[in-house]
């Protein structure tokens, strides 16, 4: 069972994050505007202030998409 207090805590943290970074939720909405399909590549990079870059990507499989859909359902994003 999900702890309601934890949900409120996470919501508060998310609200602060989106207040600091208003373009990020818009990016997520744009990305969710089209269904994910097998073969879609998701890339993530981290660029540190000293110039160090860490990057990775994943090519989505059917099971990856199923997991994402389940997570979207938990977050009320469907």
Biggest β-sheet description: 2 strands, antiparallel
| Principal-axes shape call | extended
Strand portion, in percent?
Answer: 15-25%
Specify the number of helices. Answer: 3
Q: Look at the helices and sheets and give the structural class.
A: alpha+beta
In which range does the helix fraction lie? 40-55%
Mean pLDDT: 91
Number of strands: 2
String of helices and strands: HHEEH
Within the largest sheet, what's the order of strands?
Answer: 1-2
Cα(first) to Cα(last) distance is 21 Å
- Radius of gyration, whole Å: 15 Å
Description:
The protein has 78 residues and is α+β, with helices and mostly antiparallel strands. Helix content is 50%, strand content 18%. The protein is built from 3 helices and 2 strands; from the N terminus they run ααββα. It has a two-stranded antiparallel sheet with strand order 1-2. A hairpin with a 5-residue loop joins strand 1 and strand 2 (53-59). The longest helix is centred in the N-terminal third of the chain and has 17 residues, at 4-20. The chain starts with a helix and ends with a helix. 0% of the residues are buried. The mean pLDDT is 91.
């Amino acid at each position: 069972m999900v702890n309601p207090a934890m949900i409120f805590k996470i919501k508060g943290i998310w609200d602060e994050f989106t207040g600091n970074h208003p373009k990020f939720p818009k990016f997520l909405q744009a990305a969710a505007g089209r269904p994910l399909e097998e073969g879609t590549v998701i890339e993530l990079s981290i660029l540190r202030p000293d110039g160090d870059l860490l990057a990775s990507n994943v090519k989505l499989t059917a099971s990856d998409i199923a997991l994402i859909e389940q997570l979207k359902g938990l977050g009320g994003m469907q």
